[in-house]
Amino acid sequence: MNRNQQDFQEFSRFVESTPRDTRPACDRLIEERVRRDICPRPEHIWVRMAVIQGVAGAASLAFCPQFGLGLPEHVPFLHAIHQSAPLGVFYFICGILFMAGGALLSCLLLTLDERRVIRRTHPVFHLLFSAMSYGALMGLGTEGFVLHSLLWIAGAFTASAGLFGAGGVLLTAWRSQGVQ
């Protein structure tokens, strides 16, 4: 028996059970909790996403050859891209790598109701977070030029918004197949 069938059977037993009187204060608390779970506030979701993106982005700096913040031996693949790709392409790829993990983690860690609530505003979130991340990275001392750095924001936004949306589609498809 899958999870949906178990939930349905539990709900059926609840409906068929004898009614119990509860205190009005308890009813209000339950209704408020259900309302908060079904319709979470967008600001709270944005904060959760910012924390997830921030932690994942900070973790990605461990592999970044530009800032010297990470592992003692950086990833050779990134060094090869840095040496062989045009600077604009390199920054675009860096933006993608910096934001991709956080976007996928956000999508996996947010509930279905949270993703539903922010469906219309998540591109704005990703654009703002990409710009704020860029500002933070500039504070760390990147050597990029403004034009090339704007490509970093484009890569960060593309990865963040695109992978968050793709993750939602995949999760919906998996859940419709019974995967939890």
Describe this structure in words.
This protein is mainly α and 180 residues long. The chain has one domain (41-176). 76% of the residues lie in helices and 0% in strands. It has eight helices and no strands. It has helices spanning 3-16, 24-38, 42-60, 76-84, 87-109, 112-117, 122-140, 146-176. Helix 3 (42-60) crosses helix 5 (87-109), helix 5 runs parallel beside helix 8 (146-176) and helix 7 (122-140) packs across helix 8 (146-176). The longest helix has 31 residues, at 146-176.
Strand content: under 5%
Number of helices: 8
Percent of residues in helices comes to: over 70%
Largest sheet: none
Distance between the termini: 13 Å
- Poorly predicted spans: none
Helix/strand/pairing category: mainly alpha
Rg over CA atoms: 22 Å
Average pLDDT over all residues: 77
User: Can you tell me the number of structural domains?
Assistant: 1
Total DSSP E strands: 0
